[in-house]
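Blinded run. Sample ID left blank on purpose so nobody reads anything into the name before looking at the predicted structure. Input follows.
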Amino acid sequence: QVQLVESGGGLVQPGGSLRLSCVASGFAISMENMSWHRQAPGKERDLVAMISSNADYTNYADSVKGRFTISRDNAKNTVYLQMDSLKPATTAVYYCLSSRTGYGQGTQVTVSS
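Blinded prediction complete.
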């Protein structure tokens, strides 16, 4: 069964950090561009960051540039999203995406004092 499983979300105070992980199973991500998306309550799902298959290209939403870092470990079949300087507006469900599987089930990130 091909799937993506996200983890690492939680409740964090403004200014804090979280690292999200996305583990793929049933297929190898090494040939896949991968991306993170998020959906806040009442809003559409938006692209946060993407990374090319060999990690030589990354792209970020303007709202997260300089604060978020996407990376990957193809040997572990895992994509990461390091999130620093978190803001309340960051609160959303974060999803990993591959063209092989579609979205994972998501992980909730809540930024609140």
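Unblinding after everyone has recorded impressions. The first strand starts at residue 3 and ends at 7.
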